[in-house]
């Protein structure tokens, strides 16, 4: 019996090639989308789980409240780690400080390479359970040691044994390789909390903390003088008892507050542990509490995956039911020869299983084929989990559930035919079937319209933020980080040389890169300031030529000038700072800071240096040639770009021969800020197209069904004088109504979700009403195109033929 | 003269052979005639009726309807012609199941672009003439076969056609119902001057007409 069912199922598949391919193809599309999303979510969820002690590791974060606004930060004062180690040794197995990771120059013989790494206390190797390929977990005990990743070892030493090799770090200290660790996988990042700073580079080396202290005076000062108010270090901990996270949080809450100066106490610093499992998915904080992060995308895409699969299932139901009339005769014959209802249900379910299975195989093939493209799109390195039992068992479950879900309705419906009626050929599907299937179509189009309008909103938001005025000219602007001190004191010579080469119009130095903010300070005082107001203002230390180089817009007053000696202590403020400080007629006003009095000489339009989705922070620009980290270069636009870059490299090398030059285009760096959103736009765009495609397959089924059902009616109407346009209008009206109804359901849902999403961005668009109009119109046009084939065919058929059947 | 068929041929090709559905049909119909087309199954009666009704095409010959040469007309023009002058009555009534009696009657008027008030008046008049006012809100399924065909005839007449084409209008009816419909046809023909061409198997029904056309294998005999 089973064999006979299988045979019929197979022959049915082969006989109706168009129908089968729509059915299997639609379902396979749904499966592939679900698989891609599933793989992606699995990867997102697996972040940092390969650290053996991941459940016990946390990063120490701090909430600071200034003027009623709480911000969460991860940089701490030097003595904090010691304090935690000393007082709470029962709770913490390890406490380890780390510097901010960054590019440093490793030099070995003639090789000078920019390598990404950090200075960390020795316990980090045990804490993060680094897999040491060479050397031991104690490798960082020696303060002139360094541990490097396997790929760094390969780059620096080739096939030589790296252990014991000596090299220079930042042209300053000499370090000896004491260990080689296995590369961290893509989904592991010790500095995940800095991911907002696009800190996703691989860790190339770890240098010992003591070296950091001996190399940098300011670090040594912070240590020796126990500076509790200088926040420059990251702190990681490993706790003994995973469940104690909350209670430890309560214990340590006040540690900072109890030690900081009176001034800092006003911002009520509060520290807490951010467990490793949340590093990747819940990295955002709003007003001091976790506000999600990547988890939002995981949820969103999870929902999309389920819905797209649901759409595919609905399709399957619709198409199978639509073909009911063709199968009716078979049902009649089977029933008259003695099959009962259950046997028929089993038969149809088996057919559904066969189709689902084929679709699953096809989907696997599609996923394998498209995975590289998807990886590129999603910026991942996913592999098809051929050998993972989990994948196959989930897949099997998916097949069973889908075939049951998609096959049950057609099975029940088909098996309920009465043999006498079907054999006489008078069976006509009742109203309930039709409305059930219309409801399914409404669900499909609701989802499609939500996705399409979502894509439009994401697009609008990105465009809106991209069109936002930056306050400076990103074009032809490049920046080079000064990774060694070889550039120190050579500013004018360098500027002259570069300008003489004609590759560069103007050069300036600055403390922060154009697209980031590295420094902010408190403690500013001015006339009319509320004494209770604690200040926190971004600081940019720049050279005299900064304004000309980045082409900022002076709103009031003037730019820095060399011929005014007093400009060395002058301030240029941005508009945000003027508003923040409440200054009227700011030019000539005096601002006091720890180091003395400063005169405001100019106000510039806000320079967009951080997130394009957030308001620009108040900022002070001042002249300080000793605090600059970046060289900014305005290229001569008429010159050949490659040639200019070459010339610049030559000139820079003359000043710092041992430093590899890494330049970055400012507009690229600015564009990188939209990466997540761009990815979101692409993915949601693709999913929308797929959703529409799948829905249209279903609609095609419904149209076929409708055309069959209404053949007689169309014939009669035609003989009564209906013209073809009349009929097209009549037949399309139903579909248009269905889609409009879907639109009605979709608008509030889409509005709610998109509003939620936009809330993540302070600088965001208002959702314009036309988005929904456009989405509905899109879906409407595509679907009318889809049904048009069936509708036109039904309308032009000669009534003589359609009415002859009786 | 209402219409004239000259040497009409219609065929299909099947297995390399040409099978004639209509063969050299010549027929002239004057206004006010009541013609019965008779013949065994497959003799081409319905095909002839469809050709006359311009629902079907023919392969050779000439067809003049009023002053128009149908064989030279474009599809659209032809449709306008039959919409204006011809009403159809079917063996299985072909009422729309989803529409009430009143709505079924109104439907052809919608396609002929009559105004709402006009349509109402014409439908009311038909309901009156056929004595089915009480049934106007019923659906076809709630009527007997005879009543359904009554509505079918009313629908065919509502736009005042010059010609009624009826394909075995009483085929699904019992003898009493048949008689009523035939009486109605006779009355329409004699009192209102409507030209009628009906296809029938029954000698008795054929006798209501003024002329009988016999077909055999697509040929007039």
From TrEMBL, chain B:
CDD domains: ABC_MJ0796_LolCDE_FtsE. It comes from the Bacteria. SUPFAM superfamilies: P-loop containing nucleoside triphosphate hydrolases. Residues 3-221 form the ABC transporter domain. Gene3D superfamilies: P-loop containing nucleotide triphosphate hydrolases. Keywords: ATP-binding, Nucleotide-binding, Translocase, Transport. InterPro entries: AAA+_ATPase, ABC_transporter-like_ATP-bd, ABC_transporter-like_CS, MacB-like_ATP-bd, P-loop_NTPase. Transmembrane segments: none annotated. One of its GO terms (molecular function) is ATP binding. Belongs to the ABC transporter superfamily. This is ABC transporter ATP-binding protein. It comes from Croceitalea marina.
